């Protein structure tokens, strides 16, 4: 199996891995890249170096909808039609009404105490907004919606791993797995609170998804190098979230506060909150919020709404 490191200009991750595997008399791709000029040239050049012509790609497996993984399909689908696979829940919650998804996302952050100028700034830089046109094009493709446990072409099997996004799919092969953004080698995947789904606890979902991802063999993540000890990496990520849950619970001991105020007090690996750019601040609030929601689910925190703003505190 081969991969093309598709550039991600302007993003700290640097690249997204598009994995290339032989499948029948053609090729399959797992994730494709973001809809920019640099990414398009990078993908096409990488394929040429591997001796793969774009029209020989007959199947594309997308791990999740994020712009850096999916939107370059807007170009690829113009070159040659293929079969396109994505998680069923991704389609149900995100693609079916993208405008509503976006407006609910931003109004939820206002409700969680994020200042209006930060929400407006995030609306300008968020990939979901910047690549809206490409998203609208790819949502129109004839997707095959993938369900948990389903057997797929190219010797793959779907493992539904909600958490990073609601419909994230890990594509499992014989002794290896394409882990997408579900398990990454260097950074802990961002677990954000996206919007209100009744009874939705993204961090809880994520932790359950981690425990069902054991024993898959070699991990091929969407960013970075292959993960030899996938189970060891899972344990590290679990430990990280346990520590962060304890940290946030301790922060709440100061008294009731908004998710935004919690995010400002967390010791982020990438530096203090106030020094982060708009994009990372937004991610940090989402991360704090998903931990708060999980603490509430397990009875360790409580939330109360007053004048349209949500305040969190330790459970009595
Ligand atoms: Zn992602
Ligand atoms: Zn990603």
UniProtKB/TrEMBL annotation:
Occurrences of domain Metallo-beta-lactamase (ranges):
15-223
**Pfam families, per database record:** Lactamase_B
Under the heading InterPro entries, the entry gives: Metallo-B-lactamas, RibonucZ/Hydroxyglut_hydro, Sec-metab_biosynth-thioest, WH-like_DNA-bd_sf
| SMART domains, per database record | Lactamase_B
What PANTHER family does the record point to?
ENDORIBONUCLEASE LACTB2 (PTHR23131), METALLO-BETA-LACTAMASE SUPERFAMILY POTEIN (PTHR23131:SF4)
Q: What is this protein called?
A: Beta-lactamase domain protein
Q: Which organism is it from?
A: Thermoproteus uzoniensis (strain 768-20)
């Amino acid at each position: 199996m081969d991969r093309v490191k598709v550039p991600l200009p302007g993003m700290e991750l640097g690249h997204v891995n598009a994995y290339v595997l032989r499948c029948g008399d053609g090729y399959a791709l797992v994730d494709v890249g973001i809809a920019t000029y640099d990414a398009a040239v990078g993908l096409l050049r990488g394929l040429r170096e591997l001796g793969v012509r774009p029209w020989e790609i007959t199947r594309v497996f997308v791990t999740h909808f994020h712009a850096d993984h999916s939107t370059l399909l807007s170009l690829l689908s113009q070159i040659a039609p293929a079969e396109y696979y994505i998680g069923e829940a991704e389609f149900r919650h995100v693609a079916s009404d993208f405008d509503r998804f976006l407006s609910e996302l931003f109004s939820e952050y206002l409700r969680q105490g994020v200042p209006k100028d930060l929400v407006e700034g995030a609306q300008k830089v968020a990939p979901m907004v910047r690549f809206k046109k490409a998203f609208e094009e790819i949502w129109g493709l004839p997707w095959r919606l993938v369900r948990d446990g389903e057997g797929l072409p190219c010797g793959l099997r779907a493992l539904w791993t909600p958490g990073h996004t609601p419909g994230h799919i890990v594509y499992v092969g014989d002794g290896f797995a394409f882990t997408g953004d579900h398990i990454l080698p260097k950074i802990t995947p961002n677990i954000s609170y996206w919007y209100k789904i009744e009874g939705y606890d993204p961090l809880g979902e994520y932790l359950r998804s981690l425990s069902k991802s054991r024993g898959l063999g070699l991990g091929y993540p969407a960013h970075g190098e292959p993960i030899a000890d996938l189970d060891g990496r899972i344990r590290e990520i679990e430990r990280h979230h346990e520590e962060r849950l304890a940290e946030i619970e301790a922060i709440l001991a100061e008294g009731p506060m908004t998710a935004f105020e919690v995010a400002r007090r967390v010791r982020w690996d990438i530096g203090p909150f106030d020094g982060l750019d708009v994009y990372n601040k937004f991610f940090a609030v989402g991360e704090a919020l998903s931990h708060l929601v999980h603490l509430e689910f397990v009875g360790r925190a409580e939330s109360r709404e007053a004048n349209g703003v949500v305040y969190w505190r330790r459970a009595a």
